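Thread amino acids onto this structure.
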């Protein structure tokens, strides 16, 4: 087989004729799939859960197939509807209103999903936080969003700096709660007392439903704000790209603290009323193959970093499991290596479909679909309804095969509607009618897009986006660290690892123990995935005359590349 081209798979796929679909497409047509199109009553929680719970043929279908070490559970659409109603009642009792920010900081569990939809049912805005976050990360996000309520566990409570969070009125504790204070609400007790009836808050399609914090190259993480209208694109991409069918067992491996874990770990399958596997716990190849095998997963959405680990685990590990139910695989978050695609053909006899999108875009934009050929190394082509291009820094389109800014014509259904508390940041994404992604890419003559790299200093480590500023800020809080500059260093398994260059304060000597202590400081203060794997002590950190750290220069030094223009370098 020509490795440059992997032909479309046979079979009846939901999007059979890509070209025709693009030509005749209108987002308006997708609206026919929602009940609000007739009733005028909008809430994404109704479309994802209650609508199926009210359907006699669907209500007893398993919505959530939950599995984590030591716990397994099946939750039907009707049960999830009732549990989320109960939680919505709890929230109302404590005065949560439409537009309030309610954050979740807890591991994946059936309670998480009941709470998540409970929040949406009140019209409040949900803010899921990655469970590995430590105090500083929690502080930044809860302060910026002025969160009114937080749902967490007694185990994680110690990481919540309550004294710095004046807007936080109440904390719901899920789990054995020995805290005795007005501030805490006992989840179990309140849920026992709550009724299963709730008058859902009907909202406008343009009302807020979700905030995901994500990193740029400067400043603290930014609150990317999404609205109920995003469901239109979640639904459509689930149909075309995930190729969702009613009897599918779908598994998206992403944590709901990241956008993939909400858009495609929650909304996409449930808007279609499809059974959704949720797996908690840590990654091991045997557990993952075991999950595919045990639940007879048919459609799987995962990330290159996980796939690369499966490749390293070898063929014997695959062969131990029966993966014959698996029919469709997709990947997101980082470049998908052509070797991984080749391995997928051998290991699963399936193509792995790359998809490209971002926290800010809310849903998939550039994709591979089953009925089109795959060109390994390419992210694929834009979905129907999306105009993607390569533009220069002024927003002028560039011809095929020329590298530039990957950009999207603004105004798709799932696009972020603002950056919380930061209108100028929001504006800065748009040039000449284009949303400029920060990625560089080119487009070939046939319309396939090829990812080249980030144009800013954002780091992508194991598919997780880390802002260097956040790490640098934490590093300099360590008593030994005077200055810090942080870069992403290429790594075969993780894509990039975080490398920090630091200078030491007087009185501190470079030693392995000190560097280990500094690393631990970031790990326990900010989060494990943001802690530098490598730290190098320097005499100075290169800065511009205006005091900006020249990460680009650090990176060139690290990689032994030409240093380019250094005219702005401080003396
Ligand atoms: O650089 C691109 C990379 O991940 C960035 C977006 O990260 P985040 O907002 O965390 O969202 C990740 C999942 C939606 C992009 O700017 N990225 C995402 N998908 C791909 C990718 N890089 C290469 N290929 C992809 N398929």
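Threaded sequence (571 positions):
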């Amino acid at each position: 087989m020509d490795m440059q081209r992997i032909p479309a798979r046979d079979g009846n796929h939901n999007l059979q004729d890509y070209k025709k679909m693009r030509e005749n497409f209108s987002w308006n047509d997708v609206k026919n799939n929602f009940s609000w199109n007739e009733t005028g009553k909008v809430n994404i929680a109704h479309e994802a859960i209650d609508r199926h719970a009210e359907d006699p043929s669907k209500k007893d279908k398993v919505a959530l197939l939950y599995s984590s070490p030591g716990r397994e559970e099946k939750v039907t659409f009707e049960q999830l509807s009732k549990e989320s109603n109960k939680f919505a009642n709890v929230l109302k009792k404590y005065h949560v209103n439409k537009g309030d920010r309610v954050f979740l900081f807890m591991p994946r569990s059936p309670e998480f999903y009941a709470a998540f939809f409970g929040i949406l049912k009140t019209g409040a805005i949900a803010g899921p936080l990655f469970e590995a976050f430590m105090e500083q990360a929690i502080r930044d996000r809860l302060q910026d969003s002025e969160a009114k309520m937080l749902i967490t566990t007694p185990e994680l409570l110690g990481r919540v700096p309550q004294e710095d969070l004046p807007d936080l009125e109440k904390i719901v504790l899920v789990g054995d709660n020995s805290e005795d204070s007005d501030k805490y609400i006992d989840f179990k007790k309140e849920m026992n007392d709550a009724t299963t009836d709730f008058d859902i808050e009907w909202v406008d399609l343009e009302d807020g439903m979700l905030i995901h914090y994500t990193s740029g190259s400067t400043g603290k993480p930014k609150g990317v704000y999404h609205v109920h209208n995003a469901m239109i694109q979640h639904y459509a991409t689930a149909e075309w790209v995930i190729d969702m069918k009613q009897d599918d067992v779908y598994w998206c491996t992403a944590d709901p603290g990241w956008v993939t874990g909400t858009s495609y770990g929650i909304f996409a399958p449930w808007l279609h009323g499809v059974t959704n596997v949720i797996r908690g716990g840590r990654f091991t190849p045997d557990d993952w193959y075991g999950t595919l095998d045990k639940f007879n997963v048919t459609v799987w959405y995962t990330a290159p970093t996980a796939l690369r680990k499966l490749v390293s685990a070898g063929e014997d590990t695959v062969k131990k499991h029966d993966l014959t139910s698996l029919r469709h695989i997709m990947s997101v978050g980082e470049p998908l290596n052509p070797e991984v695609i080749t391995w997928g053909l051998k290991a699963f006899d399936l193509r792995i479909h790359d998809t490209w999108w971002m926290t800010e875009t809310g849903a998939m934009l550039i994709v591979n679909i089953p009925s089109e050929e795959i060109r390994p190394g390419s992210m694929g082509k834009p979905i129907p309804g999306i105009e993607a291009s390569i533009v220069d820094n002024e927003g002028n389109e560039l011809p095929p095969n020329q590298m530039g800014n990957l950009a999207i014509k603004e105004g798709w259904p799932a696009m972020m509607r603002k950056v919380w508390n930061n209108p100028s940041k929001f504006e800065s994404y748009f040039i000449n009618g284009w949303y400029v992604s920060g990625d560089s890419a080119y487009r070939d003559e046939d319309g396939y897009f090829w990812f080249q790299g980030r144009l800013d200093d954002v780091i992508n480590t194991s598919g997780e986006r880390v802002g260097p500023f956040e790490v640098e800020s934490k590093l300099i809080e360590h008593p030994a660290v005077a200055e810090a500059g942080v870069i992403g260093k290429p790594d075969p398994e993780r894509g990039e690892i975080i490398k920090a260059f630091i200078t030491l304060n007087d009185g501190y000597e470079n030693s392995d123990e000190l560097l280990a202590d500094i690393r631990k400081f970031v790990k326990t203060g900010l989060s494990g995935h943001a802690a530098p794997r490598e730290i190098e002590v320097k005499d100075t950190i290169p800065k511009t005359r205006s005091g900006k750290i020249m990460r680009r220069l650090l990176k060139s030094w690290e990689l032994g590349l030409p240093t380019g223009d250094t005219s702005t370098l401080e003396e």
